[in-house]
Amino acid sequence: MILSAPPQSEQDTELLIPLVDVDSPELTILVPAMNEQLTIGQFLQWCHEGIKLAGCQAEILIVDSSTDNTAQIALAAGARVLKTPKRGLGRAYIDAIPFVRGKYIVMGDADCTYDFRQIGLFLEQMRNGFEFVMGSRFKGSIEEGAMPKLHRYFGTPATTSILNLMFGSTFTDIHCGMRGISCNALNRMQLQSQSWEYASEMVLKSVHMDLKTTEVPINFYKDQDGRLSHMKRGGWIEPWRAGWQNLRAMFTYGADFFLVKPGLFLFVLGALLVVLLSFGPIRIDSIQLSLTWMLLGTTLATMGLSCSYAGAIARLLFDYSSKQQRLLDYWFPFDRTMLIICLIFLTAIALTLPLVFFYIQNGYTLPSTTHITVYRAVAGLWLALASAQTFTFLLLSKAIPLKISSIHS
User: Do the bridges between strand 104-107 and strand 27-33 make them parallel or antiparallel, or are there none, so unpaired?
Assistant: First the structure.
């Protein structure tokens, strides 16, 4: 065994290298393990079979936070072992990134539920140019008893459908732990999730990054006799906690789904009410649309514009390809947008001033709510709000890309 010093930023990790190591691997099999001495031996045997079938030079990197003999068994079987503190599944992958040597990565679990004799399926697709390759248990096979019915028929299909709806993707099994990714793509992802939600974060960022993605069918087996999965070790509430963590990741990385289109709908509806009523009350059969409706329109339009702008900012924050920045630069060029903002604000003043003059000329008394100046003043106040919102959005949309580029450089 050879001991390798960790990078300065990872002083709480320790890399153990087997006596027989692999030089210049094309592929890294990256797997976290915690107290898996029951299965780690068979798992590594499967890995070696898969490497031989794939015809590649590969290293096996086990990220270990065990208190049993998992690390010793893995080392004896020719795997590198990265010793880390116990601090979450997602964090295990983050800790391992500086130690990955392969061009491609296949990740999964060390419990022999995923068949690592099938790594050739992932490697073949990555050699063909795919940057992110998801395993799909639903396209492959699921052994009887391998997946709880709640997960198989409700949890996984439901959360996969939600993600596909939010992002327009076509995944069939977003919670499959066996997946392949290029080392370059994984580094660019800059994973943040510390626990189960890392799985959704990877899928969501693969969409944001426009990675070339595909799925391959895999076999999924039940736990071996005597082994209790980490999910079951956490008790009955753990699957629900994991499900919520994944949904939380979807809502965070997909914030624009709840903001942009709903916001545009509210804005158009509200703006339509404001514009129509700026000429005074409207009667449609027995329905009277008056100042109250105009105030409702002002509220909807203001809320909608805020949501739309916030959603655009959210897209900008996850804009790995600069696509959103180019779109915003096209639709909101700085000079032209500033000119439009000024014109809108001047229009707002022009619509509001008659009410101010009326107020002064009539002994500081406001006109009745049916007076046309009131309606136009409300329209003016809304335009003033809209110009301020647009001005704020314009500044942020130009400042954020500069900050992001400075961080990446």
Answer: parallel
DSSP 8-state symbol, 8? G
Cβ-based neighbours of 69, under 8 Å, separated by 6 or more: 37
Reading the block at residue 90, the tokens are 């997602």
Question: Which domains, and CATH codes, for the chain?
Answer: 2-253 (3.90.550.10), 255-408 (no CATH)
Q: What is the pLDDT of residue 304?
A: 98
User: Is the CA virtual torsion 379, 384, 386, 387 positive or negative?
Assistant: positive
Residue whose C-alpha is closest to residue 132's, from 10, 216, 61, 197: 216
> How high does pLDDT run on average in the chain?
90
Q: In 3-state terms, the chain is what percent helix, strand and coil (to 5)?
A: 55, 15, 30
Element (H, E) at 174: none
pLDDT surpasses 50 at 2: no
> How many helices and strands (H and E) does the chain possess?
15, 11
Nearest to 230 by CA among 218, 220, 242: 242
Residue 80 in 3-state DSSP? strand
Would you say how long the chain is, in residues? Answer: 409
- Determine which of 26-35, 202-211, 351-360, 398-407 has the lowest per-residue pLDDT on average: 398-407
The pairs formed by 5-11 with CB atoms below 8 angstroms and a separation of 24 or more are: 6/98, 7/98, 9/98, 10/95, 10/98
